[in-house]
Queue: 3 jobs
Job 1
Amino acid sequence: MNSRRFLPLLPALTLLAMLGPVVAGLWGTLMPAFGHLPAAGLTGPSLDPFRDLFDWAGLPRAMLLSVSTGLLATSISLLIVMLVTAGWSGTRPFRVLERLLSPLLSVPHAAAAFGLAFLIAPSGWLSRLLSPGVTGWDRPPDLLIVQDTWGLTMTAGLIVKEVPFLLLITLAALGQADAKRSVTVAQALGYGRVTGWLKTVFPRVYAQIRPPIYVVLAYSMSVVDVAVILGPNTPPSLSVQIVKLMSDPDLAMRLEGAAAALVQLGLVIGALVFWRLGEVVAGRLGRRWVASGARGRFDPVVAEVALLAGVASALAVLLGLVVLTIWSFAGFWGFPDALPDQFTWRNWMRFGPGTLEALGETALIAVTVAMVALILTIGCLEAEYRYGLSFSARAVWLLYLPLLIPQTAFLPGLQTLMLNVGADVGRLPVMLAHLVFVLPYVFLSLADPFRAWDTRMGTIATALRASPNGVLWRVRLPMLLRPILTALAVGLAVSVGQYLATLLIGGGRVATLTTEAVALASGSDRRAIGVYGLMQTGAALVPFTLALLIPALVWRNRKGLRHG
Amino acid sequence: MDKGLSLRNVTITKDGVPLLSVHHDVRPGEVLTIMGPSGVGKSTLLAFITGTLAPDFVAEGEVWLDGHNVTHAAPHQRRVGILFQDDLLFPHLSVGANLAFGLQPGGTAAERKAKIAEALDEVGMSGFEDRDPATLSGGQKARVALMRMLLSEPCGLLLDEPFSRLDAALRAQVRDMVFDRARARALPVLMVTHDAEDAQAAGGVIITLGQS
């Protein structure tokens, strides 16, 4: 292969793979939203789709749900992470929490949502554990906890998944913020831990984690799988309604779906602008707070509460996985028994073959997509190194773009576009759609370690007469084995967790563990959900375990790489 | 043509501001020392010679090595060896594999093995082939790094503050070893340092930058 000609093309190819489908999808949304859908024999422009949408009585509530879950989930998870970090970073409880939360990052949203539902539903595990002793219930109370009208459970389901994500991002940012010394100085001046951290470190950390926070906001507003599992039904959130309209056999319904998708896009943009304004206000209030010289009298209380919230969020996911496991092995389990009457393999025998088939499809897609993303990423980073290219801060936002545009805004359009040009739905388009989401995460995961590599190693190897490709293959990549495998695992986990892309672009014909699991949400077969949820979690978690084990094994006699 | 390393009217500028100018011949077995405080561009000169100059610098002039103009040659084809203050042994390779990385291709496996054993023997480290470089002492790492560079049969040797990380006792020892080996192989040596003692020990011409 002629790398001299090929390598410089990779950054362009990567951008195309990442942004091409987004742009095409938005175009594909825009046209039918204004009444233009040749596949259904309709030509625009017209405002009828919007008129139909505004006639739907559930629209105001659906829009409100989208906005409220997004803003609440983002601000609460950010608050928990910031206060826990402020109050506890560097301490033992913090390290324990960090250990608990890091593996939770890879637990797919759907599995975490099912776990939460099985935990807190009126007939859930918590209610069983407390009944009838504490509560006096001998049958499940008639309460609407899961799928509550206000979407509070759905918000909680998002929070427990975003807390680990934001914590990990924050930890990475802390390294560059010189946090420890700032807090030491603040404490020497009589400031409490939390207040000292918030006044000195927080502004620097926030500036760094701002893009991922925006991603959390955009994602929480437009999430589908969590909303299907935990969100209200009458009316559902706007995203779920879009998917319903897009899945309708009547092609004309897609026009209304496209209009709704544009509304969703507008909502997300509006919420991002609102958040940005909130930053300005918070900054102004924060400066006044700093100027006031308040030392933070309530710091210990705040820190305790934050830690409690952090632990609760970790436990919600962990216990959720435990209860999924119990259900997957459960025989008869009557209310209010704490545990099933007997444990059995019957559920696994029954659903095992189906999950294995879905696992095969999931793995095929995930491995292909993650490998392609990894190759493109390494190609980009190596081109940047060889040709002295540098990505500006603005270009970094390009990486976040596919994660900021709501999935429900461009995936339906992409599907419609494929329909219009007569392209077949199926596995390959699904892979391309997954790539849009996998690429940014793989890139963001590998970029820092790749760039942090001591380039003098390259100079030495070159002086030893190794060619540029020789340096890459024989020195750089082996030395970076651990971050490369981690990036690959991140890519696999992201692909495994994709719901909407698989459902819409696969035209319902590509059945992965995630689509199968979410499809079970409407039924009430907890044993099937247990089996599928666990398999889905395993598919995301096993690669991470391997990413830790393989380098430890390969480099077991190489001390210099053990902490690298 | 002439053996040795020639820098012909080399001038390096950054953003239009000249950093340094050098015009000098280093004959085989000789050491040219370039001194000056940090930040005057000493290492930049070495990067120009190895062909790894960062794009924000502009360099004029030519580098000749053993009668060849290597100014525009690919970095890995210049045959310029370099040692840094850190040993930079590849952490994923054993000591023997590090040396094999340096050793020119060719020869049977047995011959290559013998050459590596011989190189280790030369610096008093026989039998260290299978060791993890991270488990070596500072002096041992410096010796392996030197032999790895020499096994690649360079035509010239660059030293970038090579001894500044070593403690006083080890420093003289490693320094003598590097200069001895370079002299024995008749290599032209260019050293940049801010340490007067290193410059004296080199026993060659000293150019001091950053004073004009």
Note: Chain A has a mean pLDDT of 91.
Job 2
Amino acid sequence: MARTVLSQADISRALTRISHEILESNRGAAGLVILGVPTRGVFLARRIAEIIQRIEPGAPASLVGALDATMYRDDLARNVTRTPQPTDIPAGGVDGKTVVLVDDVLYSGRTIRAALDALSDIGRPRVVRLAVLVDRGHRELPIRADFVGKNLPTSTDERINVRLGEVDEVEEVSIEGPRVFHDGYDEGSDEPDGGTR
Amino acid sequence: MRHLLSTKNLSRDEALQILDVAEDMAAVNEREVRKLPALRGKTIVNLFFEDSTRTRISFEAAAKRLSADVINFSAKGSSVSKGESLKDTAQTLAAMGADGVVIRHHASGAPQVLAESDWIDAPIVNAGDGTHEHPTQALLDAFTIRRRLFGSTSRGRDLAGVSVVIVGDILHSRVARSNLWLLETLGAAVTFVAPATLIPFGAEAANWPAAISYDLDGTLRETRPDVVMMLRIQSERMNAAFFPNAREYAREWGLDDARLAALGPDTMVMHPGPMNRGLEISAAAADSPRSTVLEQVANGVSVRMAVLYLLVSGQAGEGKANA
């Protein structure tokens, strides 16, 4: 049922373009902090940071980190307990910096809302931008991405699977047709909102 | 995990999950805004039937840093001193809408009674019951050991091969019991050292997974432990002549300056507090860089935040290990 919409090469090209766009809008790498939202956003953030360090000689060495938003979610009480993931802020902190949040799929916008709250408890960035690999629409909050790998119009009963070489066997973005329900469990991913949305 | 009553039935995965979440909580406790919104709108009741200052404020700080509302209930001056039963107290708390109950009780098993009853339908955390268990103390001790040994690479690791010597009043110590089960689950080797009168009757026959010794100097020399944990002499429970006098106890089983000097260079000295300086631990040992006493207090808040988060934040039901 799953149909591939981005191959490994497509993902790589999209991340390269996003990296250039980030540098363009920030006019260089000064004051830049790239924070990935666990799980897969962290790997994407690392790749973007690597590309930026390669193409921008003056880029700071500690550029990339992770920002976990689990404890700031608005649906904690509705689900079984979620285990938080590590938050890792680069040495210079976020105060006065340009923070780019990175996630794999932008859907309802609720994860990013939680991440913004988590970020404001850590410090006060100058600006916060959002980069996502896939924007699938269906926003439930007034949030939009500044840098998008691919816009994928979907229906709510389709699923987007992001698979990355760091944690998965294959690397691709695929779209799966209307959900098949059995035993009340989702197929494929063991994460309620990591790789599959 | 629905309640935290004991460390004996805690699996290795559950224990590591608590310790790993506590790492995240410790990171929060190091930043400027030491607050998380995870338990906003929830009410945690501290139900203390026995005097305790540090454990109660540690749980209170933990709950408040998770944005929960905290109600402190101590038996003194409450309706308990007027003869109210545990059942009526629990039902009163349930009617007030408690989302989690932290209980300390002088009777071993009281938290279990509360958890198994239908008086109150909230997660129960045992904060020390009689001479039975004190699971969060054992978890914070394990967390402290792990952080001292592995630093920033602690996540996901157990304590395999770590040697821990626990010295003192094993007989009355719920801390010793909780530590024994948890340390065994995490792969550490435990030795109890005490005068024979302060080792529980039948401990060897009961197959406790610990070596038992009556000779502190010999044990320290032979095991070269990574951790020496001194227990408090609980004079409030000393209702018989367990040893001739305090000076003799200090000389035979206290961590004095000479024993401190003979420890290996990386051996850490732990004490659950409050300390009797000059009795089970000398001032020099308590204040030395090997001492983890203050780290234990700080880590206690992180570990209790992890426990409260894992038990109270989600919906009732079996939590998936990584969901």
Note: Residues 318-323 of chain B have pLDDT under 50 and may be disordered.
Job 3
Amino acid sequence: MAGMRKRNDSRFGQKQTKLLMDLLVYVVLSVAGIIFILPFAWMVANSVKDIRGIYQYPPTFIPEVWQFSNYTEAWTMTHFDLGFLNSALVAAAVVLGQLFTASLAGYSFARLRYPGRDKIFLLYISLMMVPFTVLLIPLYVQMRWFGWISTLQAVIVPFLFTPWGTFMMRQFMVTIPRELEDAARIDGCGFFRTYWLIILPLTKPALATLAIFTFVNTWNSFQWPLIVLGKPKVKTLPLLLASFQNQSGMRTPWHLIMAAATFVVIPVLIAFIVGQKYYVRGIVTSGIKGGG
Amino acid sequence: MTAGAASGINRDEPKRGGLSDLRRAFSGLRRGETIAGYLFLAPNFLGFIVFMLFPILFAFYIMLTDWSLAKEPQFIGLKNFETMVNDRIFWKTLVNSFYYTFVAVPTGIFIAFWLALALNRKMRGIIFFRTVYFLPQITLTVAAATVWRWIYQPEIGLINHILEIFGVDGPKWIHDTKWAMPSVIIMSNWQGIGFAMLILLAGLQGIPEEYYEAASIDGASGWQRMRFVTLPMLTPALFFVVVTSLIGAFQAFDQFFVLTQGGPAHATTPLTLYIFQNAFSFFKMGYGAALAAVLFVIILIITIIQWQLARRWVIGFDEDNE
């Protein structure tokens, strides 16, 4: 908005130029919007076609035969109910675990004074940038030692702590006025009660950001589960979706795959639309911070 | 929540060290706080040691071994790195990783920049468009790549059908060695642009209005305002986007695994997929870890170069990071 105002033209010309620009921008935004939405629309459209409709040429957007039974068929064919349960369990455990460990440690780093605190914090920040690819192999070996291969522990326990989340919590908590806490301490609150009753409620926005980030990342996570979850009964949704495409015989049942993709995507879309504010803020604050 | 206030607040304690400090920390009034501090940190720190610090150190050992997991690891020194030099597929995958990264990242940021500019106008419906552009970003890559695999079908796919309407005979996309990588890049950018766009948009919104007004008073044209106000002021956000996108692109895995499985003929096998194949298909843990170390070093070097270059083009970089 800012750059477009204050031209030296007359008021009338200025208004016209702005209108014309707005129109142009709308056209560009809409074309881009269609490109972004098209794959989703194509996914949903194909999820209700029958096998003939899906292989028909030229392809049509509106199905000739509407076959909603694709959803139930895809669901039962690959035991998606179990996948949903696994995915939900893993996501819930990881989200709750991270909120707990990150907020406790964040409080410890931000507020409590003890020897070695700043050194440990520095160690956290410096290891934050090690790419996960480096951890894949040693972590896999560890999981074998623990006997956790093909168990849900393998995708939950290593992710119960988060350097990034801890960092974010710490940064948020140091901005909370100390007076609030001091008042509680004078009233005789212990450290845990102060954390629980004073700090946590004030940290809600940051907790919400961490929760939604972690949920989306865990729900979508593929590479690590692919490595450690071999048995069908522990597979999470992305794994089921990926193996669904490869097990099929002669004619890939794309209509069923599209139906499966649709209901795997829906929970994250809902989570995002509900928590968009926190998600966007999380990205933006981390971006501004990282930028300097 | 303001980011600026984050640092420096609880620096009221003068720094001390050594045993006397430790003794003092555990005695008298401070005792409770010290114990609480360690206890609160404990669950997190345990996870940090077991699942981060140890694996990183362990990786250094694994990369020096020949280890199939079935037998005990054999210490072979730097032999894995010697193998790498003569491994033609390794070089191919390295080239692929660079190809992917250095095409996908600049094109993605370029498009994200123009979208962010367009979204930075006071108009109705901006939030709607922002949400739409961001939806692919939160969609799981596996599902997105699955849909795109279907869209890229040469005979009955959506893209070639649209191209045909315009009289263009579309390529075989993911089934063609030349087109497979561009196919992955297009899909990845479709998915990833939302992130860059959001950061750049936040950067644009942070530019004070007065700067534009001052520029206008000095008679700056639209292009000049862009060149001398918008672009310089946006450099911190751009820098962040460039660094994180480069790091992310080198680690991209899911889309390759689902969309092309690295084919045809290794045309789209990036280093990450090659690491995965070596470790978990061929069970060469040592070689896999050595390859992962190479990936890490590449990411590290590129990040360091970015920080060095940043002095030249990012506004306010030196003041913030010294």
Note: Chain B touches chain A through 123 residues (CB under 8 Å).
